[in-house]
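ZP: hey, is the zinc ion complex queued? I don't see it on the tracker
AM: it wasn't, my bad. submitting now with these inputs:
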Amino acid sequence: MTRADDTLDAFVQALPKCEVHLHLEGAVPLDLAREWSSEPVPKDPEWFDPDHRYSSFKDFIHVLNLTWRGHLNTLERIQQAATKIFRQLNAQNVRYVEMSFGVGAYTFPVVETVAALKAGAPDGMTVRIIAGLSRDRDTAYILKIGEEAVWADNVDGVDLHGDERVGDPRNFLGLYQEARSRGMITKAHAGEFGGPTSVIQALDLLRVNRLQHGVGASNDQGLIQRFLDEGVTLDMCPWSNVKLGVIEQLGGHPLPMFHRAGVRVTVSTDDPTLFGQRLTDEYRWLYTEMGLSYGEIGQIAANAFLNAKMDDGERDTCLSEIASVVEAYEG
Ligand SMILES: [Zn+2]
């Protein structure tokens, strides 16, 4: 390891960070998945190889099922998984987390599932739990449980999940309106596989200002202007985009372009158990693969805190820590 690598690692570690685009289903720690799965889960899986790419969405779902499906079948296991996920993030100096769970994917009342997840949060970390509404599953069922989620006092927000090429976001308008009227966080996956149309639908129909991914808008100047005019944030996950073939390589990711155009972007991991990265890797790659400066990386870390639903005093502490870290390492 060169000195530059050491310095970069120390800088990334010292930055207070947020993880704001994370799916419980894609984050079950591998050692727990191995313990709970009836099928063999490899200790050193081939999908962690940096050269591995998912050949299709089906291939991705296969690994998701292996590492998650059926494993979180007690509230104790849900809490155990959450505790480990949050502890690993805490060790990377993450102070604020928004984690989604698939509505209708668990057999317990929503309020109990969410209580078990939140019970895993360590001291000093703010955890928000988001109800993920699958657009590509049985809509009537998702809406029924989605309604339960919006009225559960411990759910903090809603997100539209699933294949953007399937289902109609209009089905979820009522739930989004209710969520907004209750002051919840509202965001939606768009512009991952779906291109500009999915982004326009999320903005016009669901009226969100937090897009999960948004890569598909990178060649659309009109949409970039809308992001600026309407204060839209892109919660991006570059390594996820590479592994799923949305982007060929990190060096070609549009995150730096959006950032330099003035769009508020953040960086997160999406499904770390399926992609084999840590949040600190994503931050390092902003520097090594995308050519962003320490100052720019500090701004991206700060962007997530500016949106965070957290205590204002804690937010200010994190923002001033970021400024100090950037100043210390930039010079
Ligand atoms: Zn996602």
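AM: back. The pocket of zinc ion is lined by residues 21, 23, 189, 212, 270 (CB under 6 Å).
ZP: great, adding it to the tracker
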